[in-house]
Here is the input.
Amino acid sequence: MRTTYMAKKNEVERNWVLVDATDVPLGRLSTVVASILRGKNKPTFTPHVDTGDFVVVINADKVALTGNKASDKMYHRHSGHPGGLKSISAGALREKNSQRLVELSIKGMLPDTRLGRKQFTKLHVYSGAEHDHAAQQPVELNIQELI
Here is the structure.
């Protein structure tokens, strides 16, 4: 009798992936990165085990927002106090903190569980082309070819 393969936590081999966000639509970038963080691109994917790779996203300030999303898409946060709702458009958030824009988009595509929070810690986003992970020798992934 054959059984389905289930990865164990200590058997997982993690790699580093470098993604350039220049002129890539935000949603396309987020789906690809979230899939890599979860490990869905690997044949050893197991839903209840973190089998994903580390991802480094560079040039987050050059990510593309298609259509009217720069002005119409709103991000909200609340302080918990009455009248404490703060809102900012996607375009303004890209200008103010482009790393946060990419992080929010990717985090929304990960599970809302302890496992999803653990997978999110493997994401590293940088506004410019420089990053601190050269020692890990990340493999460059061209998203334009995947789209």
